[in-house]
Amino acid sequence: MQNYIQENQDRFVAELMDWLRIPSISTDKNFKNDVLRAAEFVAEKLRLAGADKVEICPTAGNPIVYAEKMIDPKLPTVLYYGHYDVQPADPLELWTSPPFEPQIKNETIYARGASDDKGQVYMHIKAFEMMVKHQKVACNMKFMIEGEEEIGSEHLTPFVKENKEKLKSDVILISDTNMLASDCPSITVGLRGLAYVEVEVTGTNRDLHSGLYGGAVVNPINALAAMIAKLKDDKNRITVPNFYDKVLEVSPAERLAMSKAPFDENIYKNDISAPELSGEIGFSALEHVSIRPTLDVNGIWGGYTGEGAKTVIAAKAYAKISMRLVPNQEPNEIANLFKKYFESIAPKSVNVQVHFHHGGQPYVTDTQSVAYQAAEKAVERTFGKKPIPMRGGGSIPIVAMFKQELQRDSILMGFGLDSDAIHSPNEHFGIFNFLKGIETIPYFYQYLAEMS
Ligand code: BES
Ligand code: MN
Ligand code: MN
């Protein structure tokens, strides 16, 4: 199969680039048609690769592409999950080439979605094509590729609830996470949960002249800034009461193992040109982004931000705030704790409203399972090194939902890198990683069938 990859790699990359040209931005209604085109594109590729059944399942939101190749009821069944929607590309001016005109520079594909997640989905489609061509389909294979991951997978939950029989499998396989480095493979064994809120602070019934009213009324932007400043203490601990109550502390042994991972804080820091790293005192950077919860303002606005100066006291100020959660924090509970505290620290001179956005539960993989061991063996086979189990800092809320609704574990065998700049300008995916993924995936199926 190695030859097949070599002979076809240019076509694989060219096809992926065609898919990347479709701006399937799920958060923006203006791209609805492109979202549908991206779904059709991947459905067609699954058909061409050899799926027996391919469906574009409509939902109240974006469609879910489903495909399968069932070969033998005695063999294990794997449900692959990925997403064809992408994040918005802005700020556009920071891209060195247009986000939806993919370009190859230094053996790397630059485009929005190159790594998250179209490039990683496409590895599975090409691995599947190759397995079919070589009659090496080792398991029953199901594919579910959704178009709302980046906006909270709202319609995936009802779809899963209504299609339990269709989605029946032994394990779920996902490539939507990262490795430590191309020469230092790792497998993600944990994801953080998420609670996301939006706050609205109102001072007066209209924007005011900052001379006629300034000094006598509260400025909601100043008030919001002061409230945000109160959300962490001088040790960088989140001050929301009871926020840490349910945090499952990681054992000293596991922390010791983590400290041995070849994660270089300096490389991490320099890659993002950060003058200094920061975080909760008592924990390392790797711990900050994996086993500890966070609270971060993701956006803040209000008042006049146009060109020049306008003397005004805004009526309202807003912020979007994300909290990354770790086991066993509950998104709804945390959002409620936040709301209660945020309201309690508001000065009497403003009104505060807290709205909840989508959230998600954290997840931890069982590394003793046959499926995890098959993934470990597959990565070791193609990378030549045993992968290190690592907890990831990001969130894929549907992983906990799969466990709850389908009672199945997910294997997070991702081939991206932290430096791929997902969600940022100049997102990219190394062709080496793309091809390594295609090479590794068939071994996962082979080992899973052998070990089951
Ligand atoms: N693929 C990412 C999540 C990810 C990336 C996990 C790298 C671990 C390593 C996913 O597409 C994503 O962006 N998830 C969102 C959550 C969602 C609810 C918007 C996130 O983590 O912000
Ligand atoms: Mn993703
Ligand atoms: Mn993403």
Structure description:
The protein is an alpha/beta fold and 452 residues long. It folds into 2 domains: 2-191 and 362-451, Zn peptidases (Aminopeptidase, 3-Layer(aba) Sandwich), CATH 3.40.630.10; 193-247 and 293-360, Alpha-Beta Plaits (2-Layer Sandwich). The chain has 12 helices and 20 strands. The strands form 6 sheets. It has a 6-stranded mixed β-sheet, sandwiched between helices. A hairpin with a 2-residue loop joins β4 (103-105) and β5 (108-110). The radius of gyration is 23 Å and the shape is globular. The protein starts with a helix and ends with a helix. The relative contact order is 0.19. Ligand BES binds next to loops.
What is the count of β-strands? 20
Average pLDDT metric: 97
CATH class of the largest domain: Alpha Beta
How far apart are the termini? Answer: 23 Å
CATH domain topology of the largest domain:
Aminopeptidase
Shape: globular
Give the ligands present: ligand BES, manganese (II) ion
Count helical runs.
12
Give the biggest sheet.
6 strands, mixed
Number of domains: 2
Regions with pLDDT < 50 over 5+ consecutive residues?
none
The amount of beta strand, in percent, is 15-25%
Please name the fourth-level CATH homologous superfamily of the largest domain. Answer: Zn peptidases
The helix content is 25-40%
Rg over alpha carbons: 23 Å
Strand neighbour order, sheet with most strands: 1-2-6-3-7-18
- Briefly note the structural class of the backbone: alpha/beta
The CATH architecture term of the largest domain is 3-Layer(aba) Sandwich
